[in-house]
Sequence to fold (557 residues):
Amino acid sequence: MTLFRRPLVALFAFAVLCGFASPALAQKHKELGRMWTFENVPLDFMKEAYGFEPSQQWLDHARMSSLRYGNGCSASFVSPRGLIMTNNHCTRDNVVSVSPEDKDWLNNGFFANSLAEEVPVPGLVVRQLVKMTNVTERVQKGESAKDIEAAAKEKDENLEAQVVSLYQGGMYQLYQYKVFRDIRLVAFPHLQAAKFGGDPDNFTFPRYSLDYAFMRAYEDGKPADTSKHHFGWRTEGPNDGEAVFVTGNPGSTGRLNTVAQMEFLRDAEYPLILANSIKRPLGQLYSREKGHKDKGEPVPPKLTEEILGLENARKAYTGFLDGLKNEAVMDVKRKAEKAIREKVDADAGLKEKYGDAWTRLEEICAEKTLLVADRPSGWRNKFGSLQSEEKKVAKSVGEAFFAVYGTEIPPDATFTLRISDGVVRGFPMNGTIAPWFTSLYGLYGRHTEFGGKDPFNMPEVWMKRLHDLDLKTRVNLVSTNDIVGGNSGSPMIDTKGRIVGLVFDGNIESLGNKFVFTDDVPRTVSVHPHIIIESLRKVYDRPKLADEIEGKGKGYK
Fold:
């Protein structure tokens, strides 16, 4: 249903209070994933792996067409008039905030008929990455991130500046964004169509979700001119085995974490998060929901949104934890850690600077685990001190990785723009094979097989329009791209820079990729472009919006 967005640190704090390089090298360090920064794309690897070497023009266009959406998602421009595509689940809180009291846009959907009907969403901003500058030397010489950002802002007041730490401090980049602050709601399908299958189908595949939404950026009261940079559209979508690329803003990964840090998450932090930050408040929300239903009252949209968020968090953290309990995953990490430590120890300078970092992290994590288990008097202060020291020591580990491998490996996710390569492909599942796409045949079949009962029921209009639809229309698809929470709403494009998918989820096996990346079974799950156009034309009666998206017309006025 939705890639997990809620910050880990915030959840754990609440829980505590509650109680490329060459192809050979890229393959060798596959466990570190394929979330490449736009300033260091492994062109040789892509050429050998896919027979496609993106030009600088292609990369610049992809970067400028991609967006960071709000505080936790991704998006893209898909027309010359500022039309933005993202996920339905990324937009739900915005819809709730602007929906009139006598309208239930969250459940019933919203579709503008004209530019005048597009609804402003106060407080929502999207960011377009327009400049990237390496400022590592400036930081290492003692210049603060705030001073660098202030200097950049003084030089170009129209751009928002952000200094980003990569490789846990091995490299620093200054990213400068054009910020769009006038964003308006354009199209938002029924909640039940967007989250079809509900919590049972969340993080699974085969899947049948219309998790899309469209917004529009405005400047000076008019649709923003994005004629130079927006993605084209390929309604028929990709083919099996085709190379595809995801451009988005992955939130956070822990692939540079040490084995000791992962064991602490497995044995102490994640169980606490699940118990105190997720399951306990979710139980309280369920009670409130039941109270409304028992009285025959409609469930408030805000309550529905909160339940969906925590249900998603419960499944996500359970998946993270299962990944850490997988000994095969941990063995891959142990071997990788042994390799980097041997390289550090083989270099006198690196050994002197970084050699003790892993051992100290083992000691810190062991102390933290005991504190969480025993909680002696004053333990929170001690825990905070250990957390601060851990951050400093982990920075040394990141610097060691960068000193050894440089930009031949991707840095951990930082909720900044990345590009991930992959291919469209099914996967082995439950003793059989999951296909690479699903269709409307499957969606209506699932509705029928569950008797049209929630959460496998389609909205009434979808049942009325059943015979108008081409049931061969593809609904969702899977690929081997490397994603994590924050990638929700990311565009999936082909080698010609055309939209062939809209990322909204991963299968359950992909959750373990937060720490160790594999692509044998883990998959990215996306909305197929055909179902978006088919639904706009034949269910929601918005042919002009579909024309704008497909580049067949300017759209409505």
